[in-house]
Amino acid sequence: MRFSLRSSLSTLSVLATLSKQAKSSSCSYVDGNYYCDETSVVVYNNVGFSSSYNDVTAMDESSCSCSTSSTSFSGTLSPFDEELSVHIRGPIQLKQFGVYYPSASTSYKKREVDEEEPCEETITTRKHAHKRDVAVEYVEVTATVYVNANGETITTSITPQTTTTAAGEQNVASPVEHEASAVSSSYTVVSTVLSGTTTAGASSTSTTTSATSTASTVAGAWERVAYYTPGSATNVTFMNHQGGSGSGVWSTCFGNSLSYASSDGKSCASSSTVLDDVTLTSDYEVVMFSADECSGQNGDCGYYREGIPAFHGFGGKYKIFVFEFLMPSDTDGSNSNQDMPAIWLLNAKIPRTEQYGSCSCWESGCGEMDLFEILSAGSNDLISHIHDGQGSGSEDYFQRPTSSSMKAAVIFNGEDGSIHIVEVSDDFGSTLSEDTVNGWLEQTGSTVSL
Fold this sequence. Notes:
By secondary structure, the chain is mainly beta. The chain has one domain. It has helices spanning 11-23, 349-353, 434-442; strands spanning 28-30, 33-35, 41-45, 51-60, 65-73, 84-89, 93-102, 144-148, 153-156, 188-189, 207-210, 222-229, 232-234, 237-240, 250-251, 255-256, 259-261, 268-269, 285-289, 318-326, 342-347, 368-373, 381-387, 392-393, 398-399, 406-413, 418-424, 431-432, 446-449. The strands form 6 sheets. Strands 3, 7, 11, 12, 13, 20, 26, 27, 28 and 29 form a 10-stranded mixed sheet that branches. Strands 6, 14, 17, 18, 19, 21, 22, 23, 24 and 25 form a 10-stranded antiparallel sheet that branches. It has a 3-stranded mixed sheet with strand order 9-8-10, with no helix packed on it. Strand 23 (381-387) and strand 24 form a beta hairpin. One of its GO terms (molecular function) is glucan endo-1,3-beta-D-glucosidase activity. One of its GO terms (cellular component) is fungal-type cell wall.
């Protein structure tokens, strides 16, 4: 989630909003955003397209400038098949978080965390006022190799990458895509056929409707590869923006970098620490990556800011994020985002460079997806948006869970290029059955066609 006003709504987005208004007399306009009907499902269709974005290749502290190069992408879910970081902002209490991939033989190893060490000082992270009426341009994908249910290798090839792990540790089939040499630890999927791509500059219309589900179903169970409950985590690294004291770095040019988050989520730690059973208050943010460390500058994570703890996000066109959370009211304060909780996803390259500034690929459209976001202080209406070259969002809203927790699943379906945000009641076990996931995919509600 970015906190800066970048541009006005595109013409297509305005047309989509007018279309929605015409269909529902219940829509209201609050602080620059439309709110229409309560929903338990938001589905984004036709997500992937082909274009490019400006990838950061260097950050120069002496001149306070960045170097970039153009990175092309294409795919049914691009750019959201790239590695993603997961962000939560208070007031919020996270009860569960998990990531699932289609089942495979690969096992995941829990990364032990060192005992928390106190920070020497606190450095204020730069914040910005936030507006939600923007649509950005451009967006990449790397090669993905899968093995289908019949044991056949299926490849969508653009720019292959290889997973690297620290010496002596178990190889982790993680958030990053694999080369053909890693087929034995790939994920099982039904198909990787590319379809429905939109070339840069092509005309398209984004609309929000309530319709019968036409989502492609998936075959097989899904394996949990990352999981958190308060005080315990497997393959999850917790960070915030307190770099410069304890971990990470700070500079007058680029401010605070990523740092390890302490167990309260509000301050920094010198090593990886698990988040406790805490309620983050307004404006505090925690970022979640995998526990798979980047191999080094310009390695398997590409470029990242020097001196930071750098970890992989969660990549691939077939993945599921699950959450259980509360968003209680918080009126005791005067923060820039007072009583405005949110859960969102970013291209993991953004926080590894400069999340709150111009030195990242965000402005050129490498991808942001707001899953559950309050845009007006004290509101109980959570809405969702996508920010890339096809940026759009739903004017229908989820009810904010202020007193009892809400469970939700976010399903990235590379089969048909859709992303489903679904309120659910199921348990988040070590596996998710085919029937459970297909049941989520078949739920209907608000549909946004990009």
